[in-house]
Records
---
Amino acid sequence: MDTRTGAERRTSCATARSLAALLLLAGLASAAQAQSGETQRLRSRALAATCATCHGTDGRAVEGEALIRLAGMPADYTLTQLLAFRTGQRPATIMHQITKGYSQEQLEEVAKYFAAQK
Ligand code: HEC
């Protein structure tokens, strides 16, 4: 038999409700976080898609084609090259023009994206 008073029962019920609300909030927060990670990944991928014509999908150049592979290149290396193209420090036929169209943040983002590809 439940020997608790009505007030005690109401208190434990309120505690259970707060706990449920907390769990719900925690669940929503982690879902939002997962979604923003996915949004970020898609954004980076869209940026990388602008390089696909000449460097292959996700930077994976096709064997035997005259494409330069970017997938798996260290982000530092890629970013250094991109910045060198932009300043004209590294001579190029096209990359000096392309890199001028992107912000520093976008070049960092795309360099990281390609580094994460296998
Ligand atoms: C129209 C074709 C074309 C597009 C589009 C293009 N690239 Fe290039 N990329 C080249 C060529 C050609 C080179 C060799 C350098 C040169 O002559 O410009 C090169 C070289 C590079 C290199 C140096 C690779 C190495 O081994 O040192 C990097 C890094 C690079 N590109 C990144 C990118 C990124 C990032 C994008 C997208 C934002 C991009 N490229 C878009 C044609 C392209």
---
Amino acid sequence: MWPFEPYKIDTEFNKPASYGPHEGLDLNVAGTWGNQDLGTPIKCIYPGRVIHSSASELNYGNLLVIESNTPQGKRWARYCHLQSHSDGFMMRGDIIGTMGSTGNSTASHLHLDVLKKKPSHWRFYSKNILEWYVDPRELINAIIETPMEQDKLNALKNLEAYRPNRTQGQEGSFEGFVNAIIGSDRSITSIENELTQAKERIKTLEATPPATSPVTPIPVEFTDPVAKNYYHQALQAEAWSKL
Ligand SMILES: [Zn+2]
């Protein structure tokens, strides 16, 4: 999925730019010029999680980084020069922000690039284009949304929304659980197996006098049954991690 349509490519991937080879794609709304497309909503090209956002009047301007697990490995998509941006888990097509002209930019445009190695900082640039970056079309054109992935990401989005209901001390293990779900080396089956084992272990321990105080579930209302299921699994995983 392209970030918006109709689009035109003003600078191609790996083509000479003022500072060296271009690490991504510069995109504008086709048929516009100057700042006419300022504020255009920008869609997420591939599902993932916002892991970084920052504002600056230098180089990439307002910058958003979305981390994704792909069949080719982890990828980090940087959406640059934004006017505004969102946060959280993003499905393909979700609005990640709006087009701006912040940073090193003479008129509104979207600079989109995709890293295949995690850099030391998010305003990173290397002239070794093919070592560090991939053509963003790898994510734009990828076919990814199997029903299971869709369910998983929807569940995670819902879980994220319920995070404020949770107490401070539970954040760490909850975060771990979320990362376990989205980790590229973990399949849903292996997570489910782990949770089954956790349930068994909790059952066994419940049969004996408790050594630790039980986790009190925080009442929350779910409309999404998948989210509800994952939420209860998360609680159990936490209970397990405390045993
Ligand atoms: Zn650019």
